[in-house]
Amino acid sequence: MDSLADLGTMPAVEPMEPTPYRVTHSRRETVDVTTLTLVPVAAGLASVLPGQYLMVWAFGVGEIPISVSRTLPTGEVLLTVRAVGATSTAVVGTTVGDVLGLRGPFGTAWPLAAAAGRDLVVVAGGLGLAPLRMAIDAQVAQDPTRLSVVVGAREQPQLLYADDLQRWTAAGARVHLTVDAAGRSWHGAVGTTTAVLERLAERHEMAFVCGPELMMTSGARAVVGCGVQPSDIWVSLERNMHCGIGHCGRCQLGSQLLCRDGAVVRWDHVERLLEVRGR
Amino acid sequence: MNEIRQSLATHPFFAGLSERRIDTLAAFAFVRDLPAGEWLARTGADADVFYALIHGRAGIEIHAADRHPLVVATVHSGDVIGWSWFVEPHRWHFDVVALDDLHLLAIDAPRLRAECAVDHELGYHVAGQLTRVLASRLEAARHQLVDVYGLAR
């Protein structure tokens, strides 16, 4: 630990020691994405802020960072995971009763306090909706009429959280869906989230953006084009997060250690860094 | 005529044009309503109309014998439909289908081309706006090509 100030970013328990959580529910969201509900076997972790992530151990396989998509008052955490590599495939493959090890919560959160009373646009692509879900829930609870949500996916079956999308719309938020390709029965847009942003005749003062990096870069620039100040745009970046506490350095991006200084960062702090080749 | 003029004057594609040029365009534009499911354009057909969409949603569709028709982009209120009319050989490159009931301005493309050839300021405006449309669709096509939501390669 470098200074007393670091205490503020450290989880309450020993940061490298996984806390056992048991899977109580598994919900298949898409063909390769699953949401797990986990409950602590004994004492749980500290409360999670919207946008923070956990390090998740599949014992005997490996450990990966996963953003928390929701927490419940009963202490359960929901993790939405895409089966990509060995560890994520093992996590997705767990069944009710299995135990995973969780560390955290780690990282920065979406600046919801700064968004209060302002017109917020949330832009999510693919699995990027998961780290934004709690932030959207909070904004819908506060003032849905000042919230726009733009969600992109490859195809309709890959759109996450259909129930939430309907609920946010019913509450008064403006939810815009777009996919890369569709049949004629699709009622949303076909095209990029950037194209949707450019077409929206809506006033925004602040933006949260999360998704594939190419989509975030294009989306953040489109939001700037809509008149939002770069310092009011926040993106969620992911690198090879390992320790979660800024010690191992594997997640370095410029002067930032994203496991600790991110994943949620200000756009004007990282825009130039994302233009560096071979990073 | 008033509706046509008003629709042209307020459509983003024609923003910034003088009243005189709006009047010129209005002389060879007409309002068209099309029910959902009807075709606006078929690949290979003469592109002799340029559409400015006032209300509704149209789909740009790719059709091939070995697959189902696929909507690869949607066009919405305030957008335009068609660039093939501006580029030789003036034949549609894609199918366009009405996904909702559409309310459109249809502009006689040969007359607009002729006007652009005479009035270069109008031609520059139209070319610039069409380039903006094409740039946006090119970016979207590139994102689709790299499968931005797929696994990193």
From TrEMBL, chain A:
This is Unannotated protein. Pfam families: NAD_binding_1. InterPro entries: Cyt_c3_hydrogenase_gsu (IPR012165), FAD-bd_FR_type (IPR017927), FNR_nucleotide-bd (IPR039261), OxRdtase_FAD/NAD-bd (IPR001433), PyrK_electron_transfer (IPR050353), Riboflavin_synthase-like_b-brl (IPR017938). PROSITE patterns: FAD_FR. GO terms for biological process: pyrimidine nucleotide biosynthetic process. Residues 16-112 form the FAD-binding FR-type domain. GO terms for molecular function: 2 iron, 2 sulfur cluster binding; flavin adenine dinucleotide binding; oxidoreductase activity.
From TrEMBL, chain B:
Signal peptide: none annotated. Pfam families: cNMP_binding. Residues 13-113 form the Cyclic nucleotide-binding domain. CDD domains: CAP_ED (cd00038). InterPro entries: cNMP-bd_dom, cNMP-bd_dom_sf, RmlC-like_jellyroll. This is Unannotated protein. It comes from freshwater metagenome. The lineage of its organism: unclassified sequences, metagenomes, ecological metagenomes.
